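Co-fold these.
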Amino acid sequence: MSANATTIPSGTFNPSLARRKLTGTVFYGACIVAVGILLLTLFLLLYDVFRSGLPWLDVDFITGVPSRRVERAGLFPALIGSLEMGAMVGVMAFPIGVGAAIYLTEYARDSWVNRILQTNISNLAGVPSIIYGILGLALFVRALELGPTVFAGALTLTLLILPVVIIASIEALKAVPGNQREGAYALGATRWQMVRRSVLPAAAPGIMTGVILAMARAIGEAAPLLLIGAATFVTFTPAPFGTAYTVLPIQILGWAQLPNQDFHGLSAAAIIVILGVMLLLNGLAIVIRIRLSRHIQW
Amino acid sequence: MTAQSTSLSLRRPFSERVIETLLFLAASLGVVTTIGIVLVLALETYHFFEEINPVDFLTGTVWSASIKPYHWGVLALVSGTVLVAGIAMIVGVPLGLLSAVLLSEYASPRVRTVLKPILEVIAGIPTIVLGFFAINFLSPEILRPLIGEKNIGIFSALAGGIVVGVLITPLIASISEDAMRAVPRGMREGAYAMGATRFEVIRKVIFPAAVSGIMASIILAMSRAIGETMAVLLAVGQQPQFSFDPRDSVQTMTAFIAQISMGETAQGSIQFKSLFAVATVLFAVTLVLNLISSWVVRRFRTAY
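Predicted complex below.
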C-alpha cells in the first residue's frame, strides 16, 4: 500500500447517482432486448415452419416415399433411417461412453497417460462434425469396406457423440458423494463391485439423460453423413446394412435445395416431424430421470 | 452370503483386471479417433500436394473446383468462412453475453426456470432447420425487403451468418452464465457495500472475475461457427469468391466439403483430393482455437 493510493481527491464527491442509475437501466434494457430477440427468433422459426409445413403434413406424407411429384412425396425412408441411426448410435455409444467415463473417474490415477486421455476428449468435442465424416469415409466405408450404409454412418456418429456422452457421464459420476464409495469398500466390495452396485445406480439418472440427449444430437446431425453416402432420393425403407439410405436432416436439405417452391413445404413438414422426434426423446429423458432418481436419497 | 463369496484373498481377482482393461480401452478410443483423423487428413492432403503447389493453394484467392480452368486458391473459401463466422460473432456474442448477464444477475429463480430450458431448446434445434429458416423466412421476408431485391439474393453470407449467430448464442450464454454464477456472493456484496450500482457491480466485479470463462465461451463459439456445415450449406449458397461483402453469396470450407461429397465426384480425382486439403485447413484452424480456449481458461482462471 503506497501513500499515493490513499490520497483523498480534493473537491466534493459527486455521486451523480441519477446518471449511474440511468446507465444501469439502459444496460438492463439491453439484456431484456437480447433475450427478447432470441425468443422472437424462436417464435418466428416455429411460425414459419408450421405455416409452410402443416398443409403437407398428413398420414400419406409420413408413410409415403419420395417422389418427383410433390403431392405424392413422403418421408418414410428418411424417418426409418433416422430411427435406425439413433438406435444404433445409442446402443454403441452407451457402453463405450459410460465405460470410458468410469475409467476416468473411478480407476485412472493422475498419470500423464490419463491426462492425455482427458485433454484429448475435450479437444475431440471441438472438432467440426464434418471432419468426422472424413474419418468415417476413409475408415469405415473404404478401409473396413462397410460401404455407404446406415451401419457405417452410425459408427461415425458414435465417434462424434462419444465425447458428449463421456463428459455428461463424468459429471454424473463425480456428483455421487465419496461416502457412497467408502461405504461399499467398508463392506468388502472390490472396485468393480463398488462401481457396479453403489456408484452406477446413483449416477444412472444423469448418465441416461446424457445418453438420450446425445442420441437426439445424432438424429439431428447430418453433416458427416453427407460423406458416408446418405442420399436425398431413396424410395425404399433402408435396411441397416443395405447400401442406400437417407435420414431426416438430409431429406430436408434435399427438398430445400430444389428450385420448385412447393418442395420447401415438404422440408417444413419434415422439420415438424424431426422436431417431434426431438421432443419425444427429451420427454423420455425427463421421465427416465424422474423414475431412476426415485430411490436415490442422501 | 455364501462362504465362497467372502474369499479373503488379497490378490485382485482375474475378472477385476479384465474389467479395468476393457474400461481403459473404452477411454483410449478417443485417442485412436484423433490419430485416425490426423493420419487420414495428412495422407490425403499429401496426395493433393503432389499435384498442386502448396504455396499456390495457401495464397491463391480464386477457387474453381468444378469449372475449367481449375483454380485451387483456398483463401476464397477461407474468406467466405471468416465472413460468415464474423457475422455470426457480431450477432451471437452480444446476444449470448447479455442473456448470460440477465440469467445470472437479474433474473428471479422463476424466470430462470423458464428461460434456461428455452435456451436449451434453441441449442437442440438441428442446424439444418436454421438453414431452412434462413432461406424460407429470413432472406425473403426480412433481409430482401429491407436491403432491396436487387442488392441481396436468397443466398447470402448475411443470412447464413445471422442464423449461425443464433445457433452459437446458447453456447456463449450457458458457459458465460456458469462463469458469472461462480463468482462468490461476498464479492458482489462487498461492492454493493462500497455504494456501487448493480451495473457497476456487473462491469467492475463480476465481469473481470468471470473473464476467463467468458473468453473461453467466445473462442469455442467461434470454433463452432467455423465448423458449422448444414445451416451454412443451405443459407450461404455455393459461390466460392474472395469477398467480404455480407450481401454476397459465398462458399465456406465446410460447404465446399459437403458439396463435393454430395456430387458425383469420382474418388481419386483431383476434386476429391482437394476435399481433404480443405478439411486439413479447417481442422487446423478449429484445433488452434480450441487450444487457445483451454489455455485462456488455465491462464486467467481465478479460483475462489
